[in-house]
Amino acid sequence: MSAKHTVKRSSAERPSRGRADLARLRREAESDAREPSTREIEDLPDDFWDDAELIVPEPKVPISLRVDRDVLAWFREGGAGYQTLMNAVLRSYMEATSRK
């Protein structure tokens, strides 16, 4: 049986990747909501959103998955969202095999 080795770091040593500036994001989101970002949105009729329905996506289930090193590297080369892409590939396979 192997033991896990954990390295504790101070907050100054921790990587900042993945940490959002929430105050900045809120300010940007509020200003974006006030002013449309594209001409297509500006041309929408006033009642466009009257019948809009909020659809909340199913929450994802966190798992531990072992994949080949080169497969993971290939997906990561695509940048942010690679895990979402992996899920889409798995979903596509699931749907294709379910139809047979």
Task: Kindly describe this structure.
The protein is an all-alpha fold and 100 residues long. It has one domain (22-55, 64-99). Helices cover 43% and strands 0% of the residues. It contains 4 helices and no strands. The protein has helices spanning 22-34, 39-42, 69-76, 82-99. The longest helix is centred in the last third of the chain and has 18 residues, at 82-99. The chain is extended and about 50 Å long. The model has no long low-confidence stretch (mean pLDDT 80).
Topology:
Layout: H1 22-34, H2 39-42, H3 69-76, H4 82-99
Number of helices: 4
Query: SSE order, as H and E?
Result: HHHH
**Oligomeric form:** single chain
Structural class: mainly alpha
Radius of gyration based on Cα positions: 21 Å
Query: Helix fraction?
Result: 40-55%
Give the overall silhouette: extended
Question: What's this, in brief?
Answer:
The chain is mainly α. It contains 4 helices and no strands. The protein has helices at 22-34, 39-42, 69-76, 82-99.
Features:
4 helices, mainly alpha, 43% helix, extended, single chain, 100 residues
